Amino acid sequence: MKNHAVGRELIYVHMNNSDHFVLSYGIEFSEFIKGIPVQIPNVLLLRHKFEEGHFNMHTKLDYADSDMIRKLLVENVYGYGDFCWIDFEDEEHLDQLSGQEIAEILYLAHLKDHLRLPFYGKLSNRFAYLAGDDGWCNKIYYRSWNHFYMMLGQVISTKINGQKEKSVFGLWRKKAVPAVPPEILHPFSNYMKEGLAFSIEKAVKSRQQIEIPVWVIGDFYDMDAMYEEYELINNKTPDGKIVFDRKTGEWQAYSSA
Fold it and tell me: CA 242 to CA 184: how far, in whole Å?
C-alpha cells in the first residue's frame, strides 16, 4: 500500500541481538551514511541500479568507491527497489573471496537473510545493508552495536533539525540540536528488541525543551501494518520519551520499563 511518506517523521527499529541486525523504517541510505561514525571506503553492490559502478571480475559484481558513494548519496536509491550492499576495504580483498563466500553473499542479497552472519574477515566489512525500497524497509547487519546507536542518535537529531519551528514574537532563535548520545538510547534496548517507534512528528517543543515520545508497537516486516499500528496508539500515553534540555544542551531518557 505504502500510503504514507517514507522516512520523514517516524523512525521504527526492531533489533535482533543474536543475529546482529536491525529492521527499520524511516532511515534512508543518505541518513545512514552520514550518521555512522566511520567512513566507508568501498561498497560491493549486490542489488542496485547505479550506473557508474566499477566491475569486479572475480565476483562478477559492481562496486562503488568513495567518490561514487558520494554520488550515491544524492541518487534516488528508493527508486531502485532493492538496494543491497556490503562494505569492504580494497578491491584486492574481493579477489580473495572463495566460491562459498560469494554464494553466501548472493544468497544474502536475494533472500535478505543470511546463511551465516555476513561479516567476512577478508573484506573487513562492518555492515551488510539490505533494503527493499530504501527507507521503507531496511535490514542492516552491524558488526558493532555502537555504530547502530550512534547512527540512530544522529538521525533523530537530523530529523528534529529539519523541522520548521515557530518562534515567539521573533525572539526564539533556533539552535541546532546535537545527536542523541548512545547512552541515552541504551535504556530503550529492550524495547527495541520488541519493536520501537520514535515519533518525530509528535515531538512536543517549548522554549525549555523538546520531548520525543516512543511507543513499543511490536515486531513487523510489513511496514504498512507497522504504520497502521502506530496510528492506533500514537494518541495514547507513550512507553517512554527522550528529552532535550535547551538550556543545558543535554539529552535525557525516561522509560516506563
Answer: 8
